[in-house]
Amino acid sequence: MTIRETILDILEELNDDCDFEHAQRIIDDKLLDSFEIVALVTELRDAFDIDISPRWLVPENFNTVDALENMINAILDEQ
Amino acid sequence: MTENVLEYLERAAVSHPDKAAFFSEETALTFAQLLHNAKRIGSYIASTCALRNQPIPVICAQSPISIALFLGVVYSGNFYVPIGDDMPAGRVHAMLEQLHPGIILTQDDIPVPTENVPAITYAQALCADADEPLLDSIRADFCTTDPLYAIFTSGSTGTPKCVLKSHASLIYFIERFAELFSLDDSIVFGSQTPFYFDASTKDVYSTLLCAASTYIFDKRAFSFPMELIGQMNRHHVNTVVWVPSVMTLVSNFGVLDEIVPASLRSIFFVGESMPVKILRNWMQHLPAVRFVNLYGTTEAAGNCLYYEVPAIPAETDPLPTGKVFPGSRILLLDGDRSAREGEVCIVGPTIALGYYGMDDPQKFCRNPLNSMFPERMCRTGDLARLGEDGNYYFISRSDFQIKHMGNRIELGDIEAAAMSIGGMGYCCCVYHAPSDRIVLYFVSQSLEKRDVTRALRDMLPRYMLPNKTIPLDAMPLNPNGKIDRKKLLDQLS
What we know:
CATH superfamily of chain A: ACP-like
CATH topology of the largest domain in chain B: Rossmann fold
Distance between the termini of chain B: 56 Å
Oligomer: heterodimer
Radius of gyration of chain A: 11 Å
Structural class of chain A: mainly alpha
Number of domains of chain A: 1
């Protein structure tokens, strides 16, 4: 599975009512609530076996699947 | 001597009229405004419907306006029932069915989830002028054991229970709380727990009593912990009453290595067991802050046990739940007998009036150790032991309740909701403690996973939704023919 597919899989598991693939404002439009965002971060950590430093945890990195993918790639590059 | 909590507001409005009592990033209410608006809301309610000592649900967001609505209800001579604006319609209907309210209050921008009850919006209620003679006549009729508010909790039958608390019980608790921890008008609370959870009454009523302030966080702060600490520092939050999961969130993401809440003086944590590892991390980063463990139950106002952590505890030490708040008594009972290890039972002035519209003689009963007069007692369903050091130590829930993200949840309630979905064959809900996840297993010929998650979303509040939903071809059974919960749990490890 690609990084993008894994991210979409996790998002779908959290809320399968949304079209995350094309969403532009996942956080600003409240497609995920705070429980789900925390769950998302935990699932991303487990799925990619990465540490997500707090400085990555800003709404801009979570608003689109592209942003999430970029963040994961950047963290993987760092490690 | 205070008889009605409104006296706190009335005093603060005289001593600190222009101070922000409750504020958020968007809006603020000073004590004078809060008093003025609450009186107008109370006058509007009282003049449009002659209700007394009736439940008035308030659909509330995390906003200062909610506080004005609550206190407006109190001015009208009734009691408020906070209902979260994020609660699913199914649960709200179950609540309204129990309450049969005459009216419902809401903020202007929040739709009312029912058409059967007349709704009054904040803007509407504020059109009225304060009718002082009417409010005076309501106050003259008031009795200090009248209900102040009611909070819904989950119950083992699958129907939420509505716990009623009086002015007297709240006043008794909050004055002890403020005195014990020397709270005054320099306190700025950072409010985390939603107003429909009982823990929030400590922020709200300490603020009124002490003419302090409460900053109400934007909910998003609890998803992005850097933002959380940023907001605390921006608004000089110095006192918080939080659930341990928020402290765990901040600690686990390593936030304290990057930024610390610079104004913070006291952290009270309540609602679930505090992991010692997380507490150590916080105490190492914030050596000057006071850390206090609180224990309570929704069936009593405030808390009944507290423990001020004197020094960074060793990782292997169990964290005491502590000592009894002044004026109350704790009994540990094994059935009807006193024990060193047993169910936590409360005797004292903070016990709730009971459940609205429902008798529960098991929960609120007579102290079995006292045969001479009918002494009222409340059973909590929690197990604890009394240590050699004089502190109580929490052991566990004595039933199928779990604590998840600070919320009390009956796994049976989730199963009951899932079983009510048409086409559901079997289901079983387990709690995987190591990962703090609720997992629902189900067997159905017609239902897909997404059918189940969608249906649950309409019936259960967010915090009760399973973190994972897993379809099975068949439910594993143990030799007795019961669902093999252990096997299901083992699959998760």
